[in-house]
Amino acid sequence: MLKTNAKLVVLTGQPGSGKTTLIKKLSQELSKNGYKINGFYTEEVRNESRTRIGFDVISINDHKRSILSREGSKPPKVGKYSVNVQEFEKFSFPLLTLNQDFLIIDEIGKMELLSRSFENILEKTIFPALENNKISMLVTIPAPNKSQIQIVERFRKQGHVFEITKENRNKIFSEIIEFLIK
Predict the structure, then answer these.
(1) Which of 27, 75, 116, 181 lies 20 to 30 Å from 86 when distance is taken between CA atoms?
(2) Residue 49 clears pLDDT 70, i.e. is over it
(3) What is the DSSP letter of 5?
(4) What pLDDT is stored for residue 147 in this prediction?
(5) Contact, 90 vs 124, CB < 8 A?
(6) What phi and psi, each to the nearest 5 degrees, are found at residue 157?
(7) DSSP states of 48-106
(8) Is 139:171 a contact under the CB 8 Å cutoff?
(9) CB 39 within 8 A of CB 105
(10) In what helix (H) or strand (E) does residue 8 lie, and over which residues does it extend?
(11) Summary mean pLDDT of the chain
């Protein structure tokens, strides 16, 4: 199905640049073209007054959702958000299988990496599968900053990186699809 060897496509950009929206569009296009996909994306959760109160993790295929984080004081925390590591693991780990053409993960960031088990899956299962051309991946990572996370930097170094901005997010879609499936 894939035109050449397995690929690692990495989308990066500032918060609000459109990475998650692009992941959803790319996932739909891959599926429409007959590729078997699996994975998850994260999405903001807002209250009635449109204030962000947390994040959910959502399955790419059936759009089921689970809590990733909510405003709160319970550790572990990232900023003002309490991260529900156990719920994240219970929901997302079954989605990280290698029996598809593309594994999609949005996002590999601070909240998700509070799960040491998630990091272990990436290191011990996902990277070896990529290196042996057993799977292609489409992932998002945060924009580079001072506090570099080792595994995030590994994705950045080993993947084909597309920088997403508000200016290019609508135009870059076809360039990424062309790279993935031509």
Answers:
(1) 27
(2) yes
(3) S
(4) 67
(5) no
(6) -75, -35
(7) TTS-EEEEEEEETTT--EEEEEEESSSSSEETTEEE-HHHHHHHHGGG--SSSSEEEEE
(8) no
(9) yes
(10) strand 8-13
(11) 91
In terms of phi and psi (left: phi > 0; alpha: psi -120 to 50; beta: otherwise), the region of 119 is: alpha
Percent of the chain past pLDDT 70, that is, above it, reads 95
- In this predicted structure, what is the pLDDT of residue 4? 45
> How many angstroms separate the CA atoms of 118 and 108, rounded?
9
Question: In this model, does residue 1 exceed pLDDT 70?
Answer: no
Angle CA(7)–CA(169)–CA(115) in degrees, nearest 5?
A: 55
Please tell me the distance from the alpha carbon of residue 55 to that of residue 50, in angstroms, as a whole number: 13
User: To 5 degrees, how large is the angle CA 8–CA 127–CA 59?
Assistant: 70
On whether the CB atoms of residues 153 and 5 are closer than 8 A, the answer is: no
Structure tokens at 1: 């199905």
Number of Cβ within 10 Å of residue 149's Cβ equals 17
Give the C-alpha separation, 14 to 163, whole Å.
9
Judged on CB neighbours under 10 Å (0-12, 13-18, 19+), 169 is: middle
pLDDT of residue 85: 97
Q: Going by C-beta distance under 8 Å and a sequence separation of 6 or more, which residues neighbour residue 157?
A: none
